[in-house]
Amino acid sequence: MTDDFNRTAKVLSVFDFDGTLTHHDSFIPFLQFAFGKRYFVRRLVKLVLPTIKCLRRELTRDELKEVLIKTYLTEVEDTWVRQKAEEFCSLYWSKLMRPAGLLAVATEVNSGAEVTLCSASPAMVLQPFADKLGVKLIGTQLEVKDGLLTGRISGHNCRCAQKIKRLESVYGNLADYHLRAWGDTRGDYELLAAAQEPHWRHFHPVWSKKKSRLAKLRQTSLNPPHQ
């Protein structure tokens, strides 16, 4: 019965963005691009103490993210951020994106699967990337009042269990889907655990080599060479 379900269920393919489809984080480089290096560095000083507290586990990753957003995105026009996001995507696409990841997304789209990005990065920053990929987007929402960002997150940071909750708020019960998921950090564990086809650091060259070596070792142990 399970095999029959897997063959007939709608496929939902979910990709983390930063580090999974990209070579590295995108939000910090976006902030540096949008505000310019001098302004970015001046503000960066305010993050030193919170970062140290996070390393000491006196501050959570989510709380550090909130400090970062408050530091740079308070009283900033949301239309300006969206415009800068368009420019950032256009200028940095080829440097930022992993070719193997792009191919995988295109393969899922062409297969007829429901495809979405699910990321902790702000949705308004990633929207141009989702549009270019031709997929849906679930990301951290930034609070906007009267056209200005307040420097606060609306709801919760979209990582860990929140990824599952956000996906279910859009697609309903994930058990109704054959779930494929791609991720690369602790923030993706719950998503990968829920998937019938989880892919951990699938597009990382070093990790791919390790997987290949492990597969060869496993194959050798199962089929030892004839003496």
UniProtKB/TrEMBL annotation:
Pfam families: HAD. SUPFAM superfamilies: HAD-like. CDD domains: HAD_PGPPase (cd02612). The keyword Acyltransferase does not apply. It comes from Yersinia entomophaga. InterPro entries: HAD-like_sf, HAD_hydro_SerB1, HAD_sf. GO terms for molecular function: hydrolase activity. Keywords: Hydrolase, Metal-binding. This is HAD family hydrolase.
